[in-house]
Amino acid sequence: MSLIGVFHQSSVVVMDIIGSLVTFIAPLWIAVIFGVVVGWAWKPKWAIDPNNYSWTQFFKFRVPWNTDSDLQSQPGSSYSTSSGSSESEKGLKCVVTEHDLRYLSKLVEEKDGGPAWIQMMDRSTPTMSYQAWRRDQESGPPQYRSRTVFENASPELVRDFFWDDEYRLRWDDMLIHASTIQECEVTGTMIVHWVRKFPFFCSDREYIIGRRIWDAERAYYCVTKGVPCSSMPRHSKPKRVDLYYSSYCVRAVKSRNDGQLTSCEVLLFHYEDMGIPWEIAKLGVRQGMWGAVKKFDPGLRTYKKERDSGVPLSRCANAAKFNTKVTADYVRSVEDSTSNLLETENQEDSSDKPIGRSIPKLLVVGGAIALACTLDQGLVTKAVIFGIARRFGKFGRRL
């Protein structure tokens, strides 16, 4: 009888503990959910960029479903191409320079001195193969390197395919707007305006991109990077991405079928600061990479058929033919140069990160505690949850 009484008393104590835990966990969970929702829904511009903030507006809601018509109706936005005056052409020569060629060539030859690349994907189709790598810098967003090989495709066709913004709008689901701001018919340098669509929890992103092509004996070094542009003022929506680099080298390689130089290789190097935590960005890239990449090949084959049928070139595709001719020896001499000013500039840009895009460590760890205590799935589940929280806490300190 006494044993039953002790057991009953122990059960009462356990129920009291469980009740106390529930009383503690429920408000914490509500606070965590509320904090995450508010963090994504509200955008305190005074904290992100106090110098350029208009204090007549204190908080702005993000609207993730902007359309191209909304962008065109914004005051101060220019969607017409600037006239090709001599002054603008001189200014364009400073947008993408030989330093950019030096940086890209070192990346192509893996002589940039950065961390080792970690392979993250190796996929193929009958007419295309794709490999991807990633590396994390001590400061700045994660960097990606990929190698795509198209069977039975010329370097010129692939160059035009990726340069043709008008055609890209047909096969790239993420690109919702593309226009040319300025161009130079001497060097082929262009400044273009892009708006890309992001998932529902994140607003669209705007890019002002400077780009230029160097032709090194049919090896095309295509530099595209984020640049400032005084004629395109900032707006609260869409959010502008300042740190953006997505450059590649297009050249002929031997086919895996017959060993002849009938295939085309694209070595791409990409990184950008989209204004979201880098760990979340890496997860999104890893999950959506192949879904985006596998659209390249059918898009390229359709593009080739249209070109073969005599469809006239678009303005952007025609601009790809205006490039800077150099020799392969010149590119090798550039690679051997000891200075790397562009890399220094990128590190300086990455250090000027917006405030308030990191996840507070207390919020992450508190949410992990609530989740671990709520789920009764054993020690392994709790260890995984706390491991994830610890990882997020580490990158929160880096931001």
From TrEMBL:
It comes from the Eukaryota. Gene3D superfamilies: 3.30.530.20. The keyword Transmembrane helix applies. InterPro entries: START-like_dom_sf, START_lipid-bd_dom, START_lipid_transfer. Pfam families: START. GO terms for cellular component: cytoplasm. The chain crosses the membrane at residues 12-42. Residues 115-305 form the START domain. GO terms for molecular function: lipid binding. Keywords: Membrane, Transmembrane, Transmembrane helix. PANTHER family: PHOSPHATIDYLCHOLINE TRANSFER PROTEIN (PTHR19308), POLYKETIDE CYCLASE_DEHYDRASE AND LIPID TRANSPORT SUPERFAMILY PROTEIN (PTHR19308:SF58). This is Uncharacterized protein LOC101494889. It comes from Cicer arietinum (Chickpea).
